[in-house]
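thread: overnight batch results

M.L. [08:02]
morning all. the overnight job finished for the chain we discussed friday. pasting input first so we're all looking at the same thing
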Amino acid sequence: MSDFEQVDVVVVGLGVGGEEVAGKLAGAGLSVVAVEQNLVGGECPYWGCVPSKMMIRAAGALAEARRVNGLAGRAQVQPDWTPVGRRIRDEATDTWNDKVAVERLTGKGARFVRGSAIIAGPGRVRVGQQDFQARRGIVLATGTSAAIPPIDGLAGTPYWTNREAIEAEAVPESLVVLGGGAIGLELAQVYARFGARVTVVEAVDRLLSAEEPESSRAVERALRADGIDVRTGASAERVEHDGGGFTVRLAGGGSVAGERLLVATGRRPRLADLGLETVGLDPAARAVAVDERLRAGDRIWAVGDVTGQGAFTHVAMYQAGIVVRDILGQEGPGADYRALPRVTFTDPEIGAVGLSERQARDQGIRVQVGYAETGARGWIHQAGDDVFVKLVADADRGVLVGATSAGPAGGEVLGALVVAVHGEVPLEKLRHMIYAYPTFHRGIEDALRTLK
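M.L. [08:03]
and the structure it wrote out:
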């Protein structure tokens, strides 16, 4: 043990959750070694939530400009990817450089080490030639990477993941997207609105299969309206690349082709080659099992995507606060995911919290469902029937256990629904609130009236 440098905590992985833990613990006076082999800040600021929403904002501006015709006059729209790419590069400090993030972290008192960490036993971490003994423990925050399916012919081709799609300096003439989840659909709509001919291939029978069927239908209608060819219930059997483009052969016959191929079929935790077996953890697991304090074992915690509670920045930050309190011996509630919010930033946005109708029924809950389109505001926006609120209630307890809000402000309307689910606000209280008119959130009141 004498060969290991003594520190209080080693944080392995510096995505948003790991960076938050390292910075807060260092700021509290602990000696913290923070280890990252890639970029401090992780996926979110460089290839995830921040740059993708820049792209979505730009694509949304194009869509809004096109809606001028029939609403306010006439407009001609000419897409230009140049300012989008430039803005993303400015945000990512041009060459995806984390100098600012590293300085932010070390400015809080943490010691930053660039490299690959190997856990060498309880409390022990090796990074290259440096060995550390963490007296208080280790925090795992290594995140996830794109899951690449074992499709015949795919390996070795220049396919895109979300990273290449974010870094692209030009819009391809055509794009095939494998995967009908949030990442694939957001990027598919962006590229379609910038002029690419886009095809989405999803193996199951609907898009956004983890969300409500009503959400799936709304998104599919919107994508088709943007000219996207949507293929659900279609599995990719083989991929071919001839140097100029891709052909994806589908199971049962047929094929789709595109200049580029985006693989957006999910993500898997980065757990291999960390030495987890030395502390009793399974490196082949789908996620690190943790308790309500995010403890994965004796003096070892996990935070963020590796815990399997959703690959969301807000979850990682929420968990980071719990880990910091636990290590510092502070009081506070443990993790509670009953009201976990999530938003798919397509147009319409799909905001959801808690349980879906099916999940609630599968748990044996006596379910009431309410559904309403958002009336006047949806009509004002000419948003059709893709603007709605769906409520899932526990009839026995008289509270909401889940909800969905879809529309131009679906993610913002979700805020009120998260409070209702998290706070277990009685349905009678919600029914007798005053809801401003004409707003999108007024759909909550309308949906409450339909609960049955």
